[in-house]
Design brief:
By secondary structure, this protein is α/β, with parallel strands linked by helices. Helix content is 37%, strand content 14%.
Length: 326
């Protein structure tokens, strides 16, 4: 095992990654990293500064969705036509920036959001209240496996980059089914465990692609932790401080459950949805580089015929993109 861990560490160090506490990937002040709230800049701040940081995070996520909207994953569906005037839940709404972006773009009747961190709920409430529109927002603290809503509450649920982080995918899907109105829609976009550019969520240590294809989870976790330990106290704010819970296949960041496309399909069937449609999305076809360079997106479409093979679809999809009907 020690040899495997050493080999994994060598592989991770081929493309090392160290996060910086800076503005990242947004047009305005803020951070896209939830771990930023573990930094002393936030922890030691007074209430006013904390509120500014939280607001900035929400703003950053708003601009992130404006730049690369979730609509791009559903090119043959007009989400605005489907969701205009509807009651929508953003499952795993984080700091609410994307929730507000969704609501404004689709002109929904009411946008709800839910997350497990009260600080994100505060950020979402502040940011949504700052918008100059008449849209209704409600952000709630809770978990996806026990949604605090009545049956048949929502016309649609949006879950973007969420299902890889839940403790129980089946319970989460069943709760989505319960809270959706009859024929309600669940739109979900998230990376398969086998997504080569970050499916393992080990980004605080490495950008080496495909690393989870070649090493088992235990080996990767040990190698990841050892590299973080070697960085000393400077890594305190992004070092994995969360509990090693059984659902976490890999412990990088907030942890991932290791869901694959096949496992997602199985969970969807077990959850009682009447219809499941998977939209094959070739590798990098809806990525930062393809948004900036449309020719890259066209080139990526050459992979689409390969995605007819279920095994290749696991490894060559940019995201699992699905629509489930209650």
């Amino acid at each position: 095992m020690d040899f495997k861990v050493k080999l994994a560490k060598i592989s991770m160090k081929l493309f090392p990654s160290i996060p910086e506490y800076t503005v990242r990937g947004c047009k305005r002040e803020g951070s896209l990293l939830s771990e930023a709230l573990n930094h002393r800049n936030f922890l030691d701040a007074d209430e006013a500064k904390k509120n500014r940081i939280l607001f900035g995070m929400a703003q950053a996520h708003y601009w992130n969705d404006q730049r690369k909207p979730i609509d791009l994953f559903y090119p043959n569906i007009s989400l605005k036509k489907v969701l205009q005037g509807k009651t929508v839940l953003d499952l795993g709404s984080w700091c609410g920036g994307e929730s507000v972006s969704f609501a404004e773009r689709w002109n929904v009747q009411a946008m709800h959001g839910i997350d497990t961190d009260s600080r994100f709920i505060k950020a979402a409430s502040m940011f949504s209240a700052s918008r100059k529109n008449q849209l209704r927002y409600q952000f709630t603290l809770g978990v996806s496996e026990a949604l605090p809503y009545r049956r048949h509450t929502f016309d649609a649920i949006i879950a973007r980059d969420v299902f890889e982080h839940v403790a129980s995918l089946v319970k989460t899907l069943r709760e989505c089914k319960r809270t959706l109105k009859p024929k309600g829609k669940l739109f979900t976009v998230f990376p398969s465990y086998y997504f080569p550019f970050g499916g393992a969520h080990l980004d605080f240590v490495t950008k080496t692609p495909c690393i989870q294809w070649f090493f088992d989870a235990e080996t990767l976790n040990r190698a990841y932790d050892q590299i973080l330990d070697s960085r000393g106290p400077e890594a305190y704010w992004y070092k994995n401080a969360s509990a090693k819970l059984p659902w976490k296949k890999l412990g990088g960041g907030i942890g991932v459950n290791g869901t694959t496309l096949r496992e997602f399909k199985t969970a969807a069937k077990q959850s009682g949805f009447t219809e499941l449609t998977i939209f094959p999305t070739p590798l990098l076809s809806v990525s930062d580089i393809s948004v900036s360079h449309p020719k890259v997106k066209l080139t990526c479409q050459l992979l689409k015929p390969l995605l007819k093979n279920e095994l290749l679809q696991e490894y060559l999809s940019h995201r699992i993109v699905a629509l489930l009907i209650a």
